[in-house]
Design brief:
Family: Belongs to the bacterial solute-binding protein SsuA/TauA family.
Strand order of the largest sheet: 2-1-3-10-4
Strand content: 15-25%
CATH class of the largest domain: Alpha Beta
Subcellular location: Periplasm
CATH topology of the largest domain: D-Maltodextrin-Binding Protein, domain 2
Number of domains: 2
Signal peptide: 1-24
Shape: globular
Organism: Cerasibacillus quisquiliarum
Structural class: alpha/beta
Protein name: Putative binding protein YtlA
Mean pLDDT: 93
Distance between the termini: 52 Å
Helix content: 40-55%
Length: 330
């Protein structure tokens, strides 16, 4: 009887392990390229950490490809199935008349994520104060830079004549260049903006996201051929993202920070929480994956104001809302 019990127990364990292995093998591997590592993408990390992708049968292999050009090249060369990147890159690619262009199918962030940071306190700040000053901006042609120029022009400031606009510093070196340089103003993402405030290196005085309005800032996209051949996968992916968006919307900044902290181990948890709170307050995290036509038109207006909009950027061609609508209506 003892041996029978041992044999039965072992058999049950083997069956359970086999079943678990079988379930794991059913997961479909998705190579996902993100343009940078940013807490701005909190819902994506939540979807991974909370198991929302796995619940959809997807095994996400996340790679950070550091830069719009590199990320788009990775996507177009089949180094990634899906890319999280600024939607403006799909417009640039489409303008080159490729056979298999990238299509936006799920929005993740819906505002710009940068803040205006000054070296010195500005208790009575006005955008007019930037005139005649040195402003360390973002890379030319990227959304942060275009939004920066759009906001300056909105306040009747010519970014190329009314101030000294510096755009020759790589994205990763902008914070250190600001600290060591003579610029009074800089355009920074979180958590760097909050870190600078804590360390007394700068002061957050305005939000470019609030000033520029809703825009499809960071979007999941895939090649036209991939969308046609993998409709079920795209729908599963979009469903997981939507679930994460709703989770982020309904939970506090501290809870979100704890879930995604492993992606930002060098960032103090308190700073992470403060940064997420800032983004939640200005509604930077999209609450659903639907990329609407009015926000697409705002994107085009921002690009046009910066002189970066190609002749054509048709919403009906470069945006696919079918998957977002389907999962939102379930």
């Amino acid at each position: 009887m003892k041996y029978f019990f041992t044999f039965t127990t072992s058999l049950v364990i083997v069956i359970m392990l086999t079943a678990c292995q079988a379930n794991y093998q059913k997961l479909t591997k998705i190579n996902l390229a993100e343009v940078t590592r940013s807490l701005f993408y909190a819902p994506q990390y939540v979807a991974i950490e909370k198991g929302f992708f796995k619940d959809e049968g997807l095994d996400i292999q996340l790679q950070t490809t550091w830069g719009g050009d590199k990320t788009m090249t990775t996507l177009l060369s089949d180094g990634a199935d899906i890319a999280l990147i600024g939607s403006e890159t799909s417009i640039y690619v489409y303008a080159q008349n490729p056979k298999d262009y990238a299509i936006n199918f799920a929005q993740l962030t819906q505002t710009d994520g940068t803040f205006l940071v000054a070296k010195n306190p500005k208790p009575n700040f006005s955008w007019e104060h930037l005139k005649g000053e040195s402003f360390l901006g973002q890379r030319k042609g990227g959304m942060p830079q275009m939004v920066g120029e759009f906001v300056l022009k909105k306040h009747q400031i010519d970014p190329h004549n009314d101030l000294t606009l510096l755009q020759n510093v790589d994205f990763g070196n902008i914070p250190s260049a600001f600290v060591s340089g003579d610029s009074e103003y800089v355009q920074l993402f979180e958590p760097t903006a909050s870190v600078f405030e804590r360390e007394g290196k700068g002061h957050v005085i305005a939000s470019f996201g609030e000033e520029s309005g809703k825009v499809p800032y960071t979007v999941f996209m895939a090649k036209q051929s991939y969308l046609k051949e993998n409709k079920d996968i795209i729908k599963q992916f979009t469903r997981a993202i939507y679930r994460a968006q709703k989770w982020v919307e309904s939970h506090g900044a501290s809870e979100i920070a704890n879930v995604i902290h492993s992606y930002f181990e060098d960032v103090d948890l308190e700073i992470l929480t403060t940064s997420i709170e800032r983004y939640k307050n200005q509604q930077s995290f999209a609450t659903n994956p639907l990329l609407t036509e009015d926000t697409w038109e705002n994107l085009k207006a921002i690009m046009d104001a910066a002189g970066e909009l190609p002749n054509e950027a048709p919403y009906e061609i470069l945006v696919n809302t079918d998957f977002a609508k389907e999962v939102m209506n379930e």
